[in-house]
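Action item from last meeting closed. Structure (253 res):
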């Protein structure tokens, strides 16, 4: 089976010399969705093409996309060590074995539309982002969206940024801050466990690859916390009304 990913590298890479003796560059991947060979086609332009060869059908295209982007980005990150140029890899389509194209877009989080997380008018959102904590949390959630392997780490960091805003004095115990944070936003003690389980390994030097579903759950959890914190700030730093914001134990509530 042959899958061909098409994308771009920014900025333009005419200045970078990869110095690979026998291009195209090939590598093998053994993952939860199967084993396959990847061929990175280098042509000296901003275009990047990766051919994936697999003996078996790969039905989970979003997860394959995440893997291909991660490995390809790492290749260009390695080139950065000699070129001194930071590059970002973005894939926008994949040619499938059934001779059809499918759009792949890491930067599209339209899957959140059905969740209706943010219930603010646009002017309200822009006014709220002047709050430093909110602005930093939004940035972390953005990185959770565009860094597939680090979605848990950045989603949990966004949650921790909001938690730390409840600190009243420097020597205040961490468990006290967490308690105030949860009580003010009506969040159960275990509400963050799922995201934390994907954050700690990366934080402690044990990289893991998340499934698309796990990534989405991490991002969704962080957005729920951000939404409740926005209501908390908009309400004058007042504890949320439980009739409007019931206690959440997990994403299903």
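Sequence:
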């Amino acid at each position: 089976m042959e899958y061909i990913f098409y994308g771009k590298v920014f900025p333009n890479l005419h200045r970078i010399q990869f110095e690979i003796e026998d291009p195209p560059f090939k590598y093998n991947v053994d993952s939860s969705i199967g084993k396959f060979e990847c061929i990175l086609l280098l042509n000296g332009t901003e275009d990047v093409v990766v051919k994936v060869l697999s003996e078996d059908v790969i039905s989970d295209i979003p997860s394959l996309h995440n893997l291909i982007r991660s490995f390809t980005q790492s290749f260009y990150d390695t080139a950065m060590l000699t070129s001194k140029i930071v590059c970002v890899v973005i894939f926008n389509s994949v040619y499938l074995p059934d001779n059809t194209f499918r759009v792949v877009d890491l930067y599209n989080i339209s899957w959140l539309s059905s969740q209706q997380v943010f219930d603010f008018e646009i002017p309200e959102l822009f006014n709220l982002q002047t709050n430093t904590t909110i602005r930093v949390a939004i940035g972390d959630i953005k990185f959770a969206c565009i860094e597939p392997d680090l979605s848990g780490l950045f989603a949990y960091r966004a949650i921790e940024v909001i938690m730390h805003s409840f600190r009243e004095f420097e020597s205040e115990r961490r468990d006290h801050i967490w308690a105030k944070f949860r009580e003010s936003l009506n969040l159960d003690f275990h509400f963050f466990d799922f995201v934390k389980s994907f954050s700690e390994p990366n934080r402690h030097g044990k990289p893991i690859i998340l499934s698309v579903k796990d990534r989405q759950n991490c991002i969704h959890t962080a957005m729920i916390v951000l939404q409740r914190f926005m209501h908390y700030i908009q309400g004058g730093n007042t504890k949320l009304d439980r009739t409007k914001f019931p206690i959440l134990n997990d994403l299903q509530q």
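Note appended to the action item: The chain has two domains: 2-103, 110-234.
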